[in-house]
């Protein structure tokens, strides 16, 4: 046990030591995060107060979650950041503007919540430059949703800042909150400590049998021990507090404590009970507002009896002794009493300064449908949306629908609420509100919106092709209504079939394309989106010869169309994956892939769209894999995974798999491949099956396990999906020729030639020429290999250039042309070894050994010791970017940038930024004569 100024901290030595350790690390400049978890009354709030009192020479800021049905966006975050807002102008402009809009300090496009998170991270980092900052969040499970999400993002991005965050979360209500962060679980006090606390509370010694029985009944819960012993002497507890002697002793501890608080209300004056109810109904805790509401109800504030009963504290703000006391007061009142109090609070709340709270209280005061109240809530929802509070918008619209008397506006509001809930990742609630909307009369346009929403919910739950017909139906309804949303929805339907369905069949991509082509849908307002739909539809409905040229016609606008608003940018980011898949798998255009992926990354960074940035980085990483720059690809994949983890999204394992396949890392790929295959079969994601076929084809061909490569590539060839068929055909031809299955190879070659004819790109021509060479002999094969090397080079597909040198060298050696074979095998080995494509490099090395040439081990570049993020920071710093600029680029704080750079300097043996360019260039990747292996003898 410990001696502590906090009576409630008896027996909390382990917990206090953990908090002391957090503070010690913070004072040393380290970032720390801790989530204190436990049931109601277990002592979480007291531990946070202990932390605050011990935090000398530290800036402390608080946020308190309060149980209420009201959802006001960023309310808790604003409370927490208030002490640091004078520093707002020091933030980079996009972050500053995002925070101003989120806090209602300025008008603007709704900010991305992750950009707001980065702004908060930067704000706290700036504040910590003079003194460490300690962020304390009590009852985190009751924060408004967007505040909680933002603080979780900040907690996951802390690394090298003198900022610590400690959250208190009540279980079981908060079991899903802040999962994955370091946690300190608080249980009941042991018998000795609980007995000591109890005897301190009653002011006397207790008989051991009585004390132990009382402690057991309270399960060591400190609040229960203190509250149930309140006002009782040692003698009064002599018979314990079991179910036969006290009604509050029944049920879970938290419920028993709440009933104990409720039991104290009966003896209070009626005016005091009403005053407590006002305080319970208004979570702000503003005493002036409480007095105005009390005056409206014609009662004089009588706080003394409530304070004496240990229920509430009055000061600069009104605070209940415990959230269970607030709950007891509010839920113990009659419905009409609660409505009267909310009516008084609505009248007392300033309609200009706080219109959202006024609207909410007016809604809670309504005893039936009321259009004026519903309209006020709808306006509050619109303000929440403008500030980026989608969850708050959903809740406010839902309440507006509930109090709307007329069925037409009720249906419209219910539909809007359903759409907002879906956007806030609450599909179950969205489904319920969609059902409400469906039972109301709706306009033709709203009927189309409802159909699209139901399709989106279905697609989000299961990536099956069942969503496509529903999207097509919605698109047809939009067309009939003359809505510009029609073409966008047709593109969405095609996208659903691309990523989840098949090309052929009644629900396939081709059927969707035919429907789009014949719809007569009006322009969408984005010429790039319209041209993309035309191109993809032509590709699927008319074939490659017509579709690919049409698709190319959209590239210029997709790459350069001006996007004036954040909404326009987000729409572009949503259609980018469809465009990328088409240009990759049908135009075989690596340069277009690079152009669109780079723009997607830049746009996502510029608007702070951290939900869209990870997939954009994955596409950009794929470009670098094909350029042969595996290190840069790894950096992008690592950043995408880190952002996905920080934003609560699943990592994008596809890119990790592709990189592992090209590197020949079978152990890395095996588990992920099996997991992805199960997911594909479970959810019906046909595109995943195609991806697995291609990936395993590359992996096993690199490892010279040709039978396995043949079977894997066959899966990719036969999956009837929009993507990966062509790439799988390339792998299948190589594996089939190596296995002597020449008829299979010829069949796949014929399909490949047909698929790539219209592409007319270096990548496509190189793939055909090399596949043809594998089935040719003599001078024809020789010519085709050389053509493939030239064409792949023209297309910029470096990995395929290296691979063609390898295949050409293998063919030459088998033809006894050893001297020329060595030339190409050296080139292949040098390229693959530089990329760290280990399996293909090993294939080249074995061929060189067979030709009579020894291969010297390569020296490791000094940068190989850098982690992906260190390498990314170092590269940007070497390019002249400032720490603040690098932080904004990578969504980390400038302090974290500096921390990474210090580690980079140490690893590279330098001491300044000026030395970075030379150090990163390092020694050559290969240390061999003439840039290649050393011949034997």
TrEMBL record:
Keywords: ATP-binding, Nucleotide-binding. Pfam families: AAA_16, GerE. Residues 859-925 form the HTH luxR-type domain. One of its GO terms (molecular function) is adenylate cyclase activity. Residues 918-937 are annotated as: Disordered. The keyword Coiled coil does not apply. It comes from the Bacteria. One of its GO terms (biological process) is regulation of DNA-templated transcription. InterPro entries: AAA_16, P-loop_NTPase, Sig_transdc_resp-reg_C-effctor, TPR-like_helical_dom_sf, Tscrpt_reg_LuxR_C, WH-like_DNA-bd_sf. CDD domains: LuxR_C_like. This is AAA family ATPase.
């Amino acid at each position: 046990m410990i001696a502590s100024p906090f009576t409630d901290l008896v027996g909390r030595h382990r917990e206090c030591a953990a908090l002391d350790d957090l503070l010690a690390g913070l004072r040393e400049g380290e970032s720390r995060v801790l989530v204190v978890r436990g049931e109601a009354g277990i002592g979480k709030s007291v531990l946070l107060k202990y932390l605050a009192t011990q935090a000398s020479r530290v800036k402390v800021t608080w946020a308190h979650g309060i149980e209420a049905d009201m959802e006001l966006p960023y309310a808790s975050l604003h409370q927490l950041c208030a002490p640091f807002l004078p520093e707002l102008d020091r933030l980079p402009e996009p972050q500053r503007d995002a925070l101003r809009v989120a806090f209602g300090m300025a008008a603007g496009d709704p900010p991305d919540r992750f950009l707001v998170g980065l702004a908060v991270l930067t704000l706290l980092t700036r504040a910590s430059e003079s003194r460490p900052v300690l962020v304390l969040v009590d009852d985190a499970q009751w924060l408004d949703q967007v505040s909680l999400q933002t603080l979780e993002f900040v907690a996951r991005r802390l690394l090298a800042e003198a900022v610590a965050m400690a959250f208190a979360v009540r279980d079981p209500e908060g079991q899903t909150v802040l999962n994955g962060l370091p946690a300190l679980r608080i249980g009941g006090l042991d018998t000795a400590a609980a007995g000591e606390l109890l005897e301190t509370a009653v002011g006397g010694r207790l008989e051991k049998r009585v004390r132990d029985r009382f402690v057991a009944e309270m399960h060591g819960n400190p609040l229960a021990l203190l509250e149930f012993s309140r006002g009782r002497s040692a003698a009064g507890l002599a018979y314990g507090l079991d179910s036969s002697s006290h009604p509050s002793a029944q049920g879970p501890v938290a419920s028993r404590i709440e009933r104990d608080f409720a039991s104290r209300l009966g003896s209070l004056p009626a005016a005091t009970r009403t005053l407590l109810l006002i305080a319970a109904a208004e979570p702000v805790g503003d005493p002036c507002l409480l007095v105005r509401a009390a005056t409206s109800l014609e009662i004089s504030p009588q706080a003394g009896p409530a304070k004496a009963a240990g229920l509430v504290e009055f000061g600069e703000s009104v605070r209940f002794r415990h959230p269970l006391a607030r709950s007891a007061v509010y839920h113990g009142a009659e419905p009409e009493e609660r409505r009267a109090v909310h009516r008084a609070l609505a009248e007392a709340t300033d309609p200009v300064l706080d219109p959202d709270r006024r609207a909410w209280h007016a809604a809670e005061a309504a005893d039936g449908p009321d259009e004026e109240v519903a309209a006020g809530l709808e306006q509050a929802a619109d303000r929440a949306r403008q500030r980026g509070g989608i969850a708050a918008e959903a809740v406010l619209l839902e309440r507006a629908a509930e109090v709307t008397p007329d069925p037409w506006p009720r249906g419209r509001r219910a539909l809007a609420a359903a759409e907002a809930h879906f956007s806030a990742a609450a599909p179950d609630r969205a489904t319920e509100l969609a059902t409400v909307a469906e039972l109301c009369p709706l306009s033709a346009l709203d009927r189309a919106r409802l159909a699209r929403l139901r399709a989106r919910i279905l697609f989000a739950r299961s990536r099956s092709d069942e969503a496509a017909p529903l999207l097509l139906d919605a698109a047809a309804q939009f067309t009939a209504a003359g809505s510009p949303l029609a073409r966008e929805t047709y593109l969405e339907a095609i996208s659903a079939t691309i990523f989840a369905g098949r090309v052929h069949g009644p629900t396939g991509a081709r059927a969707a394309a035919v429907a789009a082509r014949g719809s007569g849908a009006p322009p969408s307002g984005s010429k790039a989106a319209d041209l993309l739909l035309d191109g993809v539809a032509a590709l699927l409905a008319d074939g490659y010869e017509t579709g690919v040229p049409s698709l190319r016609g959209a590239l210029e606008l997709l790459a350069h169309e001006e996007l004036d608003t954040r909404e326009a940018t987000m729409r572009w980011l949503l259609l980018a994956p469809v465009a990328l898949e088409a240009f990759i798998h049908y135009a075989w255009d690596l340069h277009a892939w690079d152009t669109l992926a780079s723009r997607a990354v830049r746009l996502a960074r510029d608007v702070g769209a951290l939900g869209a940035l990870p997939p954009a980085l994955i596409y950009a990483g794929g470009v670098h894999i094909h350029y042969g720059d595996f290190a840069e690809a790894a950096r992008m994949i690592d950043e995408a995974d880190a952002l996905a983890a920080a934003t609560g999204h699943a990592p994008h394992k596809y890119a990790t798999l592709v990189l592992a396949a090209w590197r020949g890392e079978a152990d890395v790929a095996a588990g992920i491949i099996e997991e992805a295959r199960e997911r594909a079969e479970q959810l019906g994601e046909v595109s995943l099956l195609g991806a697995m076929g291609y990936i395993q084809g590359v992996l096993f061909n690199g490892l010279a396990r040709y039978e396995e490569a043949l079977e894997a590539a066959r899966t990719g060839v036969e999956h009837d999906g929009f993507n990966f068929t062509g790439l799988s055909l390339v792998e299948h031809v190589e594996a089939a020729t190596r296995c002597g299955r020449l008829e299979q190879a010829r069949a796949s070659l014929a399909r490949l030639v047909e698929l790539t004819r219209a592409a007319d790109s270096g990548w496509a021509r190189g793939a055909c020429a090399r596949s043809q060479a594998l089935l040719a002999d003599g001078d024809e094969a020789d010519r085709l290999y050389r053509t493939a090397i030239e064409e792949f080079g023209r297309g910029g597909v470096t990995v395929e250039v290296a691979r063609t040198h390898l295949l050409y060298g293998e063919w030459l050696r088998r033809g006894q042309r050893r001297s020329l074979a060595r030339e190409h095998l050296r080139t292949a080995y040098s390229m693959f070894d530089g990329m760290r494509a280990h399996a293909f490099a090993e294939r080249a090395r074995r061929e060189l050994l067979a030709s009579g040439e020894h291969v010297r081990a390569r020296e490791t570049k000094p940068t190989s010791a850098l982690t992906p993020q260190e390498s990314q920071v170092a590269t940007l710093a070497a390019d002249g970017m400032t720490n603040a600029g690098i932080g904004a680029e990578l969504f980390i704080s400038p302090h974290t940038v500096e921390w990474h750079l210090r580690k980079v300097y140490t690893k590279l043996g330098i001491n300044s930024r000026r030395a970075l360019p030379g150090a990163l260039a390092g020694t050559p990747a290969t240390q061999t004569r003439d840039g290649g292996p050393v011949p034997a003898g």
